[in-house]
Specification:
Elements (H helix, E strand, L loop, with lengths): L4 H10 L1 H17 L9 E6 L2 H4 L8 E7 L15 E4 L11 E7 L8 H11 E12 L21 H10 L2 E9 L8 H5 L1 H7 L11 E8 L9 H6 L22
Helix pairs in contact: 1-2
């Protein structure tokens, strides 16, 4: 079941812990996809991914925030023309292959139809396009705390998440994690949050971060045309069908 959009907004925009989590994850996203790399592209986010999309508002050709109906929608970004829209998990108002970059956060683990959702992600992503799936780490502390949105839904292990993405045609490119600081609003942990994020790079992904981040690409296989190889191998018979010339018969009594 998707979380309520008001709870997500309050966490990410009105709590110190949520703001710290937003910054830690967004920094990783921008490190993977610099703003200049997304210049002129269509960038979309599903679930509650809008806190991660702000850096692309100035450079991307189009930014779209897709918010699932059970969650609800809010206008975003504040002070600018709205780009968020309410959608069904498996029915997005986007043309096939139109998205260059897709971010999914608080969408996969809370969806009641994750398989169909991944099919929709694959549909809207263009050939060679990239998607970033962000989900609670089963081995992390954040998935065990109800004080954050990552404590809801189905947490994943890295192997489970990558296997599910491969089953739906995605090619896994790389993975990393974020949110190494404990999910606590206490002053000590907030003040040392940056230290824990830096230190987390030295710890294996599966043992540390509160969220897993898996980048995938959409690789479309070349279409196969039955019988084409056999047709090409056959010699071209340009003069086929023309009569074969026959030697002329000499006339009797001729000179």
């Amino acid at each position: 079941m998707h979380l309520d959009v008001q709870d997500l907004r309050n966490f990410y925009y009105r709590s110190m812990l949520g703001r710290a989590a937003q910054k830690a994850i967004r920094d990783k996203v921008v490190a993977l996809w610099p703003e200049t790399q997304c210049k002129g592209q269509t960038v979309a986010g599903f679930g509650f991914a809008v806190p991660l999309l702000r850096p692309y508002l100035k450079t991307a050709r189009r930014v779209v925030g897709l918010m699932p109906a059970p969650q609800g929608v809010m206008p975003w970004p504040a002070g600018l023309p709205n780009v968020s829209v309410l959608v069904e998990d498996t029915l997005w108002p986007l043309d096939t292959g139109i998205v260059d970059r897709l971010v999914v956060m608080h969408g996969l683990e809370t969806s009641e139809t994750p398989s169909q959702l991944l099919d929709e992600c694959y549909r809207v992503l263009g050939p060679g396009g990239s998607a970033l799936f962000i989900a609670p780490n089963r081995a992390g502390l954040w998935a065990r705390s109800d004080a954050t949105p990552f404590g809801y839904g189905r947490p994943y292990s890295l192997g489970q998440l990558e296997a599910q993405l491969r089953e739906h045609g995605f090619q896994v490119e790389r993975h990393l994690s974020s949110l190494y600081q404990p999910p606590s609003a206490k002053r000590f942990w907030r003040k040392t949050g940056a230290f824990w994020e830096r230190a987390g790079h030295q710890v294996p992904v599966i043992l540390a971060g509160g969220v897993l981040m898996v980048e995938v690409t959409k690789q479309v296989p070349a279409p196969k045309r039955p019988g084409l190889a056999q047709a090409v191998r056959r010699p071209l018979k340009v003069l086929e069908g023309l009569a074969v010339p026959e030697p002329s018969t000499p006339r009797h009594g001729g000179l």
